[in-house]
Amino acid sequence: MRDVFWRAIGQVGNQVVGLAVYEAAESAELGERAPELLTQTMRRTRAQTAALAASAQDNSATTPAKPAQN
To answer: CA-CA distances (angstroms) from residue 58 to 15, 38, 61, 64?
Structure first.
């Protein structure tokens, strides 16, 4: 691994997510592409999380509640 890396942190739902991109020693430099890669990953993660939350909310309206276990 090179000593070159980029990091990002952002909120996804009610969680804080940290992302990091490291350049491999034998790979081409990421340069200006790295921040956009992190931004795209965060956007996709947020979108997928929102879709899953909406789906879970939709299913909860049609799925009978499970009895509580003691």
So the answer is: 21, 30, 6, 12
pTM of the model: 0.68
- H helix or E strand, kind and range, residue 54: helix 33-62
Burial, 49: exposed, middle or buried (Cβ in 10 Å; 0-12, 13-18, 19+)?
Answer: middle
Q: What is the residue extent of each domain of the chain? A: 5-53
Query: What pLDDT, in 10s, does the model give residues 35-53?
Result: 999 999 999 999 999 999 9
Q: Is 2 helix (H, G, I), strand (E, B) or coil?
A: coil
H-run or E-run covering 7: strand 5-12
